[in-house]
Specification:
single chain; alpha/beta; TIM Barrel; 8-stranded parallel beta barrel; two-stranded antiparallel sheet; globular
Length: 318
């Protein structure tokens, strides 16, 4: 069953660093990943590096991880068969599996690091793995490369080199008609509270200044008051850069969907970047989870309606 979308993306602000020859490609990529709504369901698979195998084998607080999640191809099956805007992972995986999944819109992660070195040992430093020319080579090979992703850690002693790298990646992506998504996480010895709402709002504004089309941040935590209301500061600080939230570790389906609904319809976020809450499930459940997330994000559905999608009582198909 095809459903009406919650809104239609009408005016598109094409950044001035997108050349006229690439404006149509940029707009097409934006409309594709947002399903013409301005909102994004980013399916995140970059944890293959960031969290090594912790997210793909064994158990979590909510139960066992699906056996098929041990195989990287599980991610590509979800990306192809599910309802997502794009699939983000490292170039090596896209190059290896992409030829069998050519219709998936890919977002290539340019820099990455593991979680093995704790902040107590050293501030985070995520170095570039690939160039934009190398990313573009996948597009030349026939894969649907819609954009690139880059992580910045404000507060790290290495923040200046990371911000410079992010600014260049955003610029070079735009020159190629690609989208740029920044993962922005305040982290390091200088950061007292990574989930402070005011600090996260500052990170959203930083992403806008760096030229990002989308900014992925962690959802804040508050001691008192409504966290969704507090998160509005971040959505406003992002301006024309669309704010999306990290899905976080696995949690209950209804609780996850309620939080997502609040982030979009109370805070003003423009979607989410979800990995574990999708791929740790068996394939049929993972596919229904993408439908449920998209029902809220793209369709504007209520939480009960989205839960019914996950339960298999109805479909959300675009």
């Amino acid at each position: 069953m095809t459903t009406e979308l919650a809104q239609t993306l009408t005016a598109i602000h094409i950044p001035a660093d997108v050349p006229a020859s690439q404006a149509a490609a940029y707009e097409a990529n934006l409309r594709l990943v947002t399903k013409d709504t301005g909102r994004l369901v980013l399916f995140a698979g970059d944890q293959k590096v960031e969290h090594l195998n912790d997210d793909f084998y064994g158990s979590t607080k909510t139960g066992p991880i699906a056996e098929e999640d041990a195989d990287p191809e599980h991610l590509f099956r979800i990306a192809q068969q599910g309802v997502v805007g794009c699939f983000a992972t490292q170039l090596g995986l896209v190059a290896r599996y992409g030829p069998d999944y050519t219709d998936v819109p890919y977002l290539v992660k340019v820099n990455s690091k593991t979680h093995l070195i704790p902040t107590a040992q050293g501030d985070p430093r995520s170095r570039d793995w690939v160039t934009l020319e190398q990313v573009e080579s996948l597009r030349d090979a026939g894969l649907n490369i819609v954009g690139v992703g880059y992580t910045v850690y404000p507060g790290s002693e290495f923040e200046s080199e990371q911000m410079a790298g992010a600014a260049q990646v955003c610029y070079e992506a735009h020159r190629r008609g690609m989208l740029a998504v920044l993962w922005v996480y305040p982290r390091g010895a200088a950061v007292a509270d990574e989930r402070d709402p005011h600090l996260i709002a500052g990170c959203a504004g930083l992403a806008a200044a760096l030229g990002a089309d989308f900014c992925k941040v962690n959802y804040p935590k508050v001691a008192t008051g409504n966290v969704a209301e507090a998160f509005r500061e971040s959505a406003r600080a992002a301006g024309r850069t669309r704010l999306i939230t990290a899905g976080g570790e696995g949690t209950g389906v209804e609780s996850f969907l309620q939080t997502l609904h609040d982030q979009i319809f109370i805070s003003g976020a423009k979607g989410s970047a979800t990995g574990r809450n999708i791929h740790q499930k068996p394939l049929p459940e993972a596919l229904r989870m993408t439908q449920a997330i998209s029902a809220i994000t793209y369709g504007g559905w209520s939480v009960p309606d989205a839960v019914s999608v996950f339960n298999g009582d109805r479909d959300f198909v675009i």
